[in-house]
Design a protein that fits this description.
The chain has about 130 residues and is mainly alpha-helical. The chain is about 60% helix and about 10% strand. The chain has two domains: about 5-70, Winged helix-like DNA-binding domain superfamily/Winged helix DNA-binding domain (Arc Repressor Mutant, subunit A, Orthogonal Bundle), CATH 1.10.10; about 90-129. The chain has six helices and two strands.
Length: about 130
Amino acid sequence: MPDKTDAALSRRERQIMDIIYARGRACVAEVHQAMADRPSYSAVRALMGVLEQKDHLKHIAQGGRYIYMPRRGRKQASRSAVRRLLATFFEGSAEQALAALLEASASATTPQELDLMAKLIDKARKEGR
């Protein structure tokens, strides 16, 4: 059963999380300043509150302001996002997802990347996945 951290993020929530992950931690004003096509300061503050309710962010009080940081590491969050992507668009099939990825990026995929993917597949096969 997915927990609330598996809930999909809106475009703005994802934008905020990207800024927080890049900086490690930030206050609302710093996030607001870093946003492209930024909404109001109040909207950013409200969205960060929503992200905290969804367990994506946590905060500490420092000098009269809240400093926000991710509750989970970027790698853990990306795994959760990939699981949602697989379930939503590929019926849980890694094969279908890989085929779509290769089709979408055929001209941009380097031989080195293809070699690495092949090694990862071989490793998964050996580990019985």
